[in-house]
């Protein structure tokens, strides 16, 4: 466990250097890869051997390397790709904050803000390249979790779906493609909704409106199903209740309206669950950011005049908390 950070950094470096991309579907020697990516061959060889020991690469009898099915997730051109996470987690602005975790815990202060002098989202807004890498990961993680969400929840009764804080629209695009009778509203900050490529790729642009705004002030009206995917874990309880109240205001008298919170819901006990690791990541990055249990989400929903109906696990890290307006 003490050495767990080392495999993570090896995988992140393989992704950042695009080594699995350079190998592709065939087999390449370390020399081939070093030439393709412009890197020092002896060290590329050592990194690739380490990747093989972790199961993401395989060494052939002739000494060349090929990607394993697991390693294909580090490529940029596969449906199972998580390469964007490898790039993001390898960025100094991210891992420098983790180095301040002990001091942050002592002081009760957000390590990222202690290191960078600004909040995580302020930093992203001031650094377009970092923001682009974060946005790429958000879109990619939606691609990874969307199938699990669609397979675990029945969207067929929804007529107008509002994705609150929906980023570039990857999740909403997939839901609309699966439910051709439905219409959608993608709601995020004005700068984010300037690029909604997933809606075009899915062919649902004619059924989806993109709206820029601030979900702390208002949420578009007219939806009978609202979605909040990996939004609430960025905020403390007071801000979460404010967001949920804006959602409640948007549905008005439609007491049949549903709200879906899509988050890494923690188990009630401390049994092994990746959500506990994500909870510390939120503690490092965001003021008030945290993962929550079903009970805690139920309490937040009640304060905003929603009633939690059920929590639905999916085959991914994400669970679905379903609530209705009361």
Please tell me about this protein's structure.
By secondary structure, the chain is α/β, with parallel strands linked by helices. It folds into 2 domains: 5-80, Orthogonal Bundle (Arc Repressor Mutant, subunit A), CATH 1.10.10.10; 142-325, Vaccinia Virus protein VP39 (Rossmann fold, 3-Layer(aba) Sandwich), CATH 3.40.50.150. It has 15 helices and 10 strands. It has helices at 5-16, 19-23, 30-37, 41-53, 83-89, 92-98, 101-107, 111-116, 120-126, 128-150, 170-178, 197-202, 237-251, 274-285, 294-303; strands spanning 27-28, 57-59, 65-67, 160-164, 183-188, 208-212, 225-229, 258-263, 306-313, 319-325. It has a 7-stranded mixed beta sheet, with helices on both faces. Strand 9 (306-313) and strand 10 (319-325) form a beta hairpin. Helix 10 runs parallel beside helix 11 (170-178). The longest helix is centred in the middle third of the chain and has 23 residues, at 128-150. The protein is globular.
């Amino acid at each position: 466990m003490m050495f767990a950070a080392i495999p993570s950094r090896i995988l992140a470096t393989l992704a950042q250097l695009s080594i699995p991309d350079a190998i592709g579907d065939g087999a390449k020697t370390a020399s081939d890869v070093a030439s393709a990516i412009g890197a020092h061959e002896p060290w590329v060889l050592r990194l690739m051997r380490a990747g093989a020991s972790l199961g993401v690469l395989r060494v052939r009898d002739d000494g060349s390397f090929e990607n394993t099915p697991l390693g294909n997730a580090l490529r940029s051109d596969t449906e199972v790709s998580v390469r964007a996470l490898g790039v993001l987690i390898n960025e100094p602005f991210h891992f420098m904050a983790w180095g301040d975790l002990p001091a942050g815990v002592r002081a009760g202060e957000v390590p990222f803000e202690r290191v960078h002098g600004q909040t995580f989202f302020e930093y992203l807004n001031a650094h377009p390249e970092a923001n682009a890498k974060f946005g790429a990961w958000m879109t990619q993680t939606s691609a990874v979790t969307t199938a699990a969400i669609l397979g675990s929840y029945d969207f067929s009764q929804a007529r107008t779906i509002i994705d609150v804080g929906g980023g570039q629209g990857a999740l909403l695009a997939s839901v609309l493609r699966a439910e051709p009778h439905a219409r959608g509203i993608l709601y995020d900050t004005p700068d984010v909704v300037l690029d909604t490529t997933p809606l075009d790729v899915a062919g649902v642009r004619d059924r989806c409106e993109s709206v820029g705004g601030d979900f702390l002030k208002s949420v578009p009206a007219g939806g009978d199903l609202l979605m909040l995917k990996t939004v609430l874990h960025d905020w403390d309880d007071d801000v979460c209740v404010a967001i949920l109240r804006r959602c409640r205001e948007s549905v008005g008298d439609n007491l049949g309206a549903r709200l879906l919170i899509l988050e890494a819901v923690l188990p009630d006990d401390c049994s092994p669950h990746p959500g506990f690791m994500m909870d510390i990541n939120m503690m490092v990055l965001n003021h008030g950011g945290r993962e929550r249990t079903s009970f805690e989400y139920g309490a937040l929903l009640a304060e905003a005049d929603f009633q939690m109906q059920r929590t639905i696990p999916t085959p991914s890290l994400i669970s679905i908390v379903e609530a209705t307006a009361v």
